[in-house]
Write a structure and sequence with these properties.
CATH architecture of the largest domain: 3-Layer(aba) Sandwich
Number of strands: 19
Strand content: 15-25%
Distance between the termini: 31 Å
Radius of gyration: 32 Å
Structural class: alpha+beta
Number of helices: 11
CATH class of the largest domain: Alpha Beta
Shape: globular
Largest sheet: 9 strands, mixed
CATH superfamily of the largest domain: Zn peptidases
Oligomer: single chain
Helix content: 25-40%
Length: 484
Amino acid sequence: MSFPDCAEQPNRFGSGVDLKPVPPILGAGRRRVAPVRSGPPAPLRAAPLTGLIPSFLLVFLFAFLWEAALPAMAKDKEARLLRRHAGKRSTREALEVLESLLPEMVKDQIRIAEIPAPFGSEQARAEFMFHRFRELGLIDVHIDDTGNLHGRRPGNGEGATVLLSAHLDTVFGDEAVTVERDSSSGLLRAPGIADDARGLAAMLALAKVLATTGVRPGGDLLLVATVGEEGLGNLAGTKRLYSKEGWGWRADYFLNLDGIDERVIVNGALGSARFRVVARASGGHSWWEFGRPNPIQALARAVNCMVREPVDSGSAPRRSYSFGRIGGGTSINSIPQEAWMEVDLRSGDKTELSSLEARLRSCIAAAVEAERNWSSIDDPDFDLELVTLGRRPSGTLPAESKLVRMAVEASRLMGIQPVLQTSSTDANVPISLDRQAITLGYGGEAGGLHTLGEWYDPTGCERAMRRNFLLLLALLGEKKLDRP
């Protein structure tokens, strides 16, 4: 909703409101003497309310309408701001430069993907990115004690600070990688070619546009290539950014590049709790010691307890559990001395995730009791242990927040119909800390993610990249956020 300037209106309340002059006080300018009354004083009477009720209703109605109009006003403000940025000559020139860099993005993407980077061994890939940061003229370039690579492009000191991130690690091992490229279609095929080699290449391209066009926004741009986003990395890199001395606290806005779909804006942090359940017992011969507690049986009882809960039908807030791995035992004719399983619990809601963990712990306790009750031979060594493998925090950045509204409007301006989504990304950490943070896609098409057959096709990625640059530029021009 758009409101014209008050000066253009016939009165300060807008057209259609008849402002009548306040009538003069009765008898003004004449002195009147009240007559003297005899007898007892007249009883006091309450002031009539008939004149107050309409005024009260008008105030209430105005407040209600004003509050209802605020979201539309904010949305229109963001749209106008982004259109103004998009209409600048310098922005148009920068977007042209960005499109010219798309072939270079592919070259960077291939070089990055061919450097193995399993969690804990991201150093070689970080060193490649280190040199690229230096080539782009970034300052304060360094690798922290966790393995995150940092770089900064200073603004003119008059805008918000934006942290732009993508992750270094992959789900694969340290085997050599060779990218296959289809010369006719441009399709790329290799483990990790999309997730997140493309995100790292996109981050370099956005930084190069600012470096080569001379566009100098008001705020500082912080670029960070993180570690530990995948698997049991448990967002180690981003958690380090929000430790006491981390760069995360400097940022007013956090933009993470991780994902293909140009429509998706991740504003929900899908939290997780991951555990290994270890069962131990004395073990023995499957015939002669039959009746002793069996660790694998105990694990099966715990799983059976958990799966009694109905599968989530999609109602909010959602939650899930997955028993992903199980192992143990010595031979088919032995009672195991040890068995283990790994379980992944997830929810975008902190309360739901805590409730799910409580259910797992309850099922483990019930499994121990049931196995002991079943056994005919006492075994003091029998027990189940729950080992925490990692946690990722939950949370949601409201759809009404400034960053989400701006990302939505930037998408629409580029012809993209945005979709808000909950997922597990590096943005989990700042979102859980009530910071302005989202994850954006970089466009194109991909498939086979997290498999050896992963592929990426850059066709059509231009819109997402233009959207990402326009949003970045607009945020850097915003005022810094007031924070305690």
